Amino acid sequence: MGETFRFASFNVPRVLSINGQVPIEDEQEDAVKSIAGLQGRVLRTGHLLSNLVLNETLLLGLDTLLDLCRRNYIRVVIPLFDPTFLPLVLNNTKNTIQSLLNRVNLVNGIQYKQDPTILAWQITTQEGIAFQWIQETALLIKQSAPNTLIMAYPESPDISNGFLADANIDILSLSLSSQTTSDLQLLHNISTVLQSKKVIVIDAIGGEINYVESLLDAAYRNPKISGVFVDSLDFHSKDGGFYTGGYHVPGFNYSKGFSQDDLEFAKMARNYSLKMKGYPLNVLYPIPRPLKRGGVNGKRLWWMGSAWAQRYHVLAFNLDLNLSQEIGSIEDGLASGQFYFEDTITNVTVNYAVLPESVNGDITRDNPLVIPGFA
User: Fold this and answer.
1) Is 343 in contact with 318 (CB distance < 8 Å)?
2) I need a surface site. Which of 88, 280, 316, 353 has the fewest CB within 10 A?
3) Which residues pair with 331 in a beta bridge?
4) H or E element, residue 172
5) How does strand 225-230 pair with strand 309-318?
6) Percent of the residues in the chain that have a pLDDT greater than 90, as a whole number
7) What is the pLDDT of residues 312-351, one digit of tens each?
8) Contact partners, residue 114, CB within 8 Å, separation at least 6
9) What's the first-to-final CA gap in the chain, in angstroms?
10) Run of H or E residues at 81
């Protein structure tokens, strides 16, 4: 048996849907680059199915996401069924699953059931679902996609022999958020029961930072735990700033819409991502890519940020007047739709260039975003 694939990463539930809308490709790329810079190795999406009808718009978004992940060496875990709707679909899932697995990605031509970027299909995200249905669904997926892993919850924390014996279920899912030491004991107990038959992936850790760190440390020290997903990561908005509600990279000091632990969570998660991969903690932070989108309203500037940018440098230039100067240095960390910068310095018509700077202090000077200014 080969070495266990290990990771610590984030859930990114909005990477396929934000208030019912599929994120644009630049937003998805920002999410993928965030996970890649975290050294997270794996991204976990939100639920793909809320009923038995395949949503073509959502699947087009998944096509794009899978190709972005493939090009950035990130694997994907895809939860299938929203547990809220399971009672309505339990006996009618076969055709939906077969159609999904047989889909050909319209971006790269790879059939879903043959795509190595998909690390695992997670059947659902809730304990207490009838195990017979879990077994039947796992068998159905394995028959079509034998090289894809299957994640599933047991019927209860008292894992049955049937769950342990089922060769089609590769990974035991757990969600931990009790905020007590009982979760550490549960991890120990389940690891003992599993022996070498399956590995554990903790698919959702949430809560106070010291509690999350204790679980990450327990996972790191337990070789039967393959991976951990922290709840949850948000990414840059196409309208400027970040979506809020989750955590952000590289982490920012507290501001409107951001957690008070945003900065500490990002550092902690990256450290454990590196540990789980066996890397030293002094790996340099990534250099942010050039900015792509931005605009101006009067002298108020906005732009879509770049993953792993700590701050941005704003330059004003006017070739006719031979004017070129830095007029601002602004930390990232705003909520979606907020303006980054207001020019109160120049009093002539100028153009603006915006350059992202990494945590290490590297400024991305190639292909700067140029925003035409107005008088």
Assistant:
1) no
2) 280
3) 311
4) strand 171-176
5) unpaired
6) 63
7) 999 988 765 555 789 999 999 999 988 999 988 877 778 8
8) 145, 147
9) 67
10) strand 75-81
- Got the DSSP string for 297-358? ETTEEEE---TTEEEEEEEEEETTTTEEEEEEEEES--BTT---EE--S--S--EEEEEEEE
Q: For residue 162, which of 143, 187, 135 has the smallest C-alpha distance?
A: 135
Distance CA 132, CA 296 (A): 58
- The tokens of 181 are what? 């030491």
Sorting pLDDT into bands at 50, 70 and 90, what band is 1?
Answer: very low
For residue 167, give both structure tokens: 């060769």
One DSSP character per residue, 29-42 reads HHHHHHHHHHT--E
CA separation for the pair 123, 132 (Å, rounded)? 13
C-alpha distances (whole Å) from 255 to each of 145, 205, 230, 331, 333 are: 45, 23, 21, 11, 7
Distance CA 153, CA 185 (A): 18
Q: Report the candidate in 223, 78, 44 with the shortest Cα–Cα distance to residue 148.
A: 78
List pLDDT tens digits, range 95-106.
889 999 999 999
Residue 327 CA to residue 343 CA, distance in Å, equals 8
